[in-house]
Specification:
By secondary structure, this protein is of the alpha+beta class. It has twelve helices and 20 strands. The two termini are 54 Å apart.
């Protein structure tokens, strides 16, 4: 059974060459064309693609861009076409979508990455990746734009030229212009540099895979053992795994987080999360605060605690009617409890017990109706709510 691929074809030389190339290789193809209606020639280009597709004997699918699609044009156009590709992959049970990016696109992306100083997981473009849940294949990354144009001319492959070039990315256009001015030797040296970086990244990725961190939180000692050359990548991948878009972080930002780990303590706010280094552990934590109001005691269980009729002495609490309603909650600044040996601040308790910060944030505290702390998990009840016959036993989960 032949492999079937959706092929993204705009009508330009890159995608028309790609269509011909994959046809010659014997793949089963469905050609996907998006008509953006941005120029007078748009309909002619759609017809050109359809006619060449039928000449080669493949299926043709097209769609007109919805100008009301949300977002700026570049983002909206990208999201729109990949939604279209995704629909076609499902409809035809295809392997994925083939895209006509070539060597010059690869070099442009590589230079942009270097200029931005962003941490990336791959230099340039990936020949095989995933976008919006579908496999994206770029078979032409080894072929230059000039080679594509020469082949199209010598083999009679029709194509259209977008004279307006509605690519609005100033940086990419500037880099494209700079690349076009490079002499053959300079471009070859840049290409060799990119290929060397890709080879190095393959070795790094293999090393990263062998040192992957899976747990949250993880022990600092496990991170210390990771080779220095892959610590940035390992940490970034861990952040991504737990919901942080760390691909937007600069090298310096990741280095700062590693510095916190090396110091053994610190907190850094990352979007809606906190990156916490405390007592030999590193944790990425969102908002874990909680609050339950009870008008009476019932034996029950939540994700944070259990209330039981029996338990250990330190879990016991004796409540009177005038204590209600009680609140079972996470700690708040200034919390303190009156014990037999004197008043104990929770902050001091956490330090004395060497409780990591990420555990402190979800510790269990009970306050009565006048907001006195009557119970702290691990400390027990206050001096006024102790008896030999507790009315309830509280277990922090």
């Amino acid at each position: 059974m032949e492999e079937k691929w959706i092929v993204a074809v705009s009508g330009g030389p890159d995608s028309m060459y790609l269509l011909n190339h994959l046809h010659q290789k014997g793949y089963g193809l469905v050609v996907a064309h998006v008509n953006y209606k941005m120029r007078p020639e748009s309909d002619d280009e759609a017809m050109l693609v359809e006619e060449y597709t039928k000449e080669l004997g493949h299926l043709f699918e097209s769609i007109t861009f919805n100008k009301d699609f949300p977002g700026n044009f570049q983002k909206a156009a990208r999201d729109f076409r990949y939604d279209f590709f995704s629909d076609l992959v499902g409809k035809y049970n295809a392997m994925g979508v083939a895209i006509g990016h070539h060597l010059d696109d690869d070099l442009e992306t590589y230079i942009m990455q270097k200029e931005s100083k962003r941490v990336t997981d791959w230099p340039g473009l990936k020949s095989l990746t995933e976008i919006k849940g579908i496999k994206v294949w770029r078979p032409l990354l080894h072929i230059s734009k000039k080679e594509i144009l020469n082949y199209c001319e010598s083999h009679g492959i029709p194509y259209a030229i977008d004279k307006s070039n509605f690519e609005t990315n100033y940086t990419r256009n500037r880099i494209r212009l700079e690349l076009s001015k490079l002499d053959r030797k300079s471009k070859q040296l840049l290409t060799e540099e990119l290929y060397q970086e890709k080879e190095k990244q393959i070795a790094i990725n293999n090393l990263v895979l062998s040192h992957k961190i899976k747990d949250n939180p993880f022990r600092i000692e496990n991170f210390v053992d990771i080779p220095n050359e892959v610590k940035h990548t390992v940490l970034r991948n861990w952040l991504v795994e737990y919901g942080i878009n760390a691909y937007d972080f600069t090298y310096e930002h990741i280095a700062h987080l590693i510095d916190l780990i090396d110091k053994g303590k610190g907190i850094e706010k990352l979007s809606d999360y906190s990156f916490i280094v405390s007592f030999d552990e590193v944790c990425l934590q969102g908002d874990v605060s909680y609050r339950y109001k009870l008008n009476r005691i019932t034996y029950h269980e939540t994700e944070h605690y259990k209330l039981l009729p029996t338990g250990e002495t330190i879990e016991g609490l004796t409540l009177a009617e005038d204590d209600f309603p009680i609140v079972i909650r996470s700690p708040e600044p200034g919390d303190k409890i009156e014990m037999r040996f004197g008043t104990k601040r929770l902050s001091r308790f956490f330090i004395d017990r060497k409780i990591p910060i990420h555990e402190r944030k979800k510790w269990l505290v009970i306050e009565n109706c006048v907001k006195d702390i009557v119970f702290v998990s691990g400390l027990g009840c206050d001096v006024h709510h102790y008896s030999n016959n507790p009315s309830v036993f509280v277990i922090k989960l």
